């Protein structure tokens, strides 16, 4: 949940080793690491679950 195990949530880089998920449920908003580098290949289908908080300003 949130990001596949072994994947950096910010950079999308693998931290040693990482699973390849069929789908990932992430909370509040998609983490940037799911959308770049290895995150694109490792996250599978991405589902965002609203938990009532706002995305931080970038």
From TrEMBL:
Pfam families: YjeF_N (PF03853). It comes from the Bacteria. Residues 1-58 form the YjeF N-terminal domain. This is Nicotinamide nucleotide repair protein. It comes from Weissella viridescens (Lactobacillus viridescens).
